[in-house]
Amino acid sequence: MKYLIIDGKKQSIPPFPHHKSFIYRCKHFFQAKSLYDQITMSNFITVKELIRGWRYKCSMPRVLLIDPTSACNLHCKGCWASDYAKGDHLTYDELDDILSQTEKLGIMDCLMTGGEPLLRKDDIIKLCIKHKKMTFGAFTNATLIDEAFADEMARLGNLNVFISIEGTREETDERRGAGVYDKAIAAMDILKSRGIGFAFSACYHSRNYQTVASTGFLDMMRAKGAWFGWLFHYIPVGSDADLSLVCTTEQRAYVQEEIMHYCSINDYVIIDFWNNGHLAFGCLAAGNGFVHINARGDVEPCAFCHYSDSNIHDVSLLDALRSPFFTAFRKAQPFSKNPLRSCPLIDVPEAIEKVVIEGNAHSTHFSCPESAHQLALKSHEKAKQWKDMSEALFLKMPEYTRKNFPVFLKYHAFKKHHTDGRRI
After folding, report:
1. Which of 32, 81, 191, 379 could make an SS bond with 37 (beta carbons 3.0 to 4.6 A apart)?
2. What is the pLDDT of residues 326-352, one digit of tens each?
3. pTM: predicted TM-score of the whole model, two decimal places
């Protein structure tokens, strides 16, 4: 029987479909200590991805990220979702078709972003029922989670939620609106009362980074029933982005060290999206690990990289994965030999300029589009500072990450040779 230690207690993991099985797989992916662990996890899913990549002559992602809608019932400060046209959405039939394509390609995990995906909760439930072999997850502000929806989640088994929260009540409500914190906590209580494992999701920035990385906040999230957590570094996407929210390199390093320490002593999984490159073989975008489709159908490398050369309304998902932009993007991976500098948006900004030009991609940002050069200009100085600081951090990390550092490069080289390399 599979199990996880959750808040000090041994919790069994029921067979799929069950929301807890996704959490179990996440833990094993982000805590793999060797290439062997990577290859053997989840019924050899890595091997299956390599085989499919060889078959389709293209790197096959493990996860599809998709925005059912660009609409949201909140207006959070610094969130680009508010910039998009509120009428942008993918119809149920379009979502169903995309998911059918993903299943055919062997992609069995779908995470929904937005906008607020639960504005489409009825369609999401229908999709979970029809595509019952897939795992679904929704990044949500939780204001639309009620007891009836929690009952549906418990019945379905293959739907997870990741509840957005910014730290304290004051920090959350300051960015998300009055009363949002209390609604998010109430949703956690509802889910916990039904034995539903969920995750908390926090965007850390210059004003809340200490709270988000604090023992008090993380202990509270675990006590509320969060089986794991997602952390997202504020990225200044869009020409009107609030640069005051961008963390300094010292603040980012503080979060990285505090989170790694907390997870180590508490046997807990927190996916620190920009600081976990060493646990995920670097950047996973552009089909290397996941692919993103926004509410207008633009196929993007990830939810934060708003550039594309393909739209799902015009091409198949497979053709989008094979597009010149995605091919150029993957060819450039890994963007650095230091796995703590894995992201081309903020760690190696000259790289995003290069691949956008080479792939002839365009900005997909709706009201505040910006060239890759404009985006890179906002990150160059901090990227230089992070380069030096991350080298020092890397040397202080547990022995296994340094010992297996060459594996990080070898895996990428092997994967590219046996997938995209066959097309060159």
Report:
1. 32
2. 999 999 998 988 888 999 999 999 999
3. 0.94
